[in-house]
Write a structure and sequence with these properties.
heterodimer, A: 112 residues, mainly beta, 6-stranded mixed beta sheet, 5-stranded antiparallel beta sheet, 11 strands, 0% helix, 55% strand, B: 113 residues, 7-stranded mixed beta sheet
């Protein structure tokens, strides 16, 4: 079955760049998503990339997709304390299933 | 766009009681999902509706859990009887369909004593 893997924690200094990595197994996924979850809130869509793209940039966010290695990354430039949250990678849909598969989430801690 | 609305935000009840969680999806969204989030298991899909019809309920833990979607603007998740191990944050999400990104509610934090 599908599987999405992420490291559980990442700690960075304010002002540095953060890179959150994700690997997935289903090569037929149409979209790959990044969601952000702040304490006490639901998951909020940050950005997503079509599987036929290599890169997508949106202000401080850069998404890189390596389809060959099934590797997705999210880079946050000039990381701020307000970026501290849990970041989820997700893939889908594929093979007729519209149910996305989520990773366990990466807790990003930004310290001064 | 009011977003996905869940109620209640918090629920504390004693084991054995019936619990009903409610969700109002975004208008025009065809698909609705119920998830459960815990530290141990992360985010788990419980059930998925498309056009008000349950499509995949393989994630529903056991017969104590049931979900309904009587119309396009309302869904419920019911636990009867509730147990302490049901304590978690329950999220509802909706999407337009066809793999479009999901929009999540703020969740219901459920504590079963």
């Amino acid at each position: 079955g599908e599987d999405v893997e992420q490291s559980l924690f990442l700690s960075v200094r304010e002002g540095d760049s953060s890179v959150i990595n994700c690997t997935y197994t289903d090569s037929s996924s149409t979209y790959l998503y990044w969601y952000k979850q702040e304490p006490g809130a639901g998951l909020q869509l940050l950005t997503y990339i079509f599987s036929n793209m290599d890169m997508k940039q949106d202000q401080r966010l850069t998404v890189l997709l390596n389809k060959k290695d099934k590797h997705l990354s999210l880079r946050i430039a000039d990381t701020q304390t307000g970026d501290s949250a849990i970041y989820f990678c997700a893939e889908g849909p594929s093979g007729g299933s519209y149910i996305p598969t989520f990773g366990r989430g990466t807790s990003l801690i930004v310290h001064p | 766009d009011a977003g996905v609305i869940q109620s209640p935000r918090h629920e504390v009840t004693e084991m054995g009681q019936e619990v009903t969680l409610r969700c109002k999806p975004i208008s025009g969204h065809n698909s609705l999902f119920w998830y459960r989030q815990t530290m141990m298991r992360g985010l788990e899909l419980l059930i998925y509706f498309n056009n008000n019809v349950p499509i995949d309920d393989s994630g529903m833990p056991e017969d104590r859990f049931s979900a309904k979607m009587p119309n396009a603007s309302f869904s419920t998740l019911k636990i009867q009887p509730s147990e302490p191990r049901d304590s978690a944050v329950y999220f509802c999400a909706s999407e337009r369909g066809g793999g479009q990104p999901q929009h999540f509610g703020d969740g219901t934090r459920l504590s079963i004593l």
